[in-house]
Design brief:
By secondary structure, this protein is of the alpha/beta class. It has 7 helices and 14 strands. It has one domain: 4-Layer Sandwich (Metallo-beta-lactamase, Chain A). The strands form 2 sheets. A 7-stranded mixed sheet has the order 6-5-4-3-2-1-14.
Amino acid sequence: MRITFIGTSHGVPEPERRCSCTMIEVDGRYYFIDMGTQAIEDLIHRGISIDAVKGIFITHPHGDHTNGLISFVDLANWYFRTSAPQVYLPDVSLVTGMKAWLTGSESGDLREGIGLHVYEAGVIYDDGFAKVTAIPTQHCHHAHAFLFEAEGKKLLFTGDLAHPTRDFPQVAFEEELDLIVVESAHFSSDATEAVLANAKVKRVLHNHISPRWAEDLARMAKNEHHYRYGKAFDGMEITL
């Protein structure tokens, strides 16, 4: 399994960081956690077939996690017509809005093969290669974390949280995880560090980092942890 961090910025893009978007490759199949930037351009630049994209999972409806999704679905709808991506959104209004955009932009009605699904808590996807479980959080209405399982590995993507002491996903303390990707735009790393002390995890990466917490993260990097620690950056690739 290979994980590529396409965008790691906080609520707005920065000179060296685009908005939230993570790509996961499993046996030649591609999955996305959030699409806050133009991921379809990355796929084309990397020579990855749009047909290989199987699932797109949106943690919550804020623009810095969704702004690349319209362009992806639009091009899949009228140009990459053999593709069949399945998109998972946390509210029916997002599905309605997406369909209206396609019609209004003359891309046409949503064609057969593309799936726009509304999800709730629990297992939302399992294609035999990857399994995704949605876990509600308190960042905003319809916000979720995702547990991503593939090739015997377990990854937790927290999405934005209200605060780690209030809504950090309990799975981190109940199951052995290979990686936790912690989004860190809205609170300091001090609170995160205290919570992660009890997590059953091999590696932690901070993502979606606000510059105001840079000093806290630098201090955390110097501390000892029972897990391998670091922060994600645009273009970073890791293999599990």
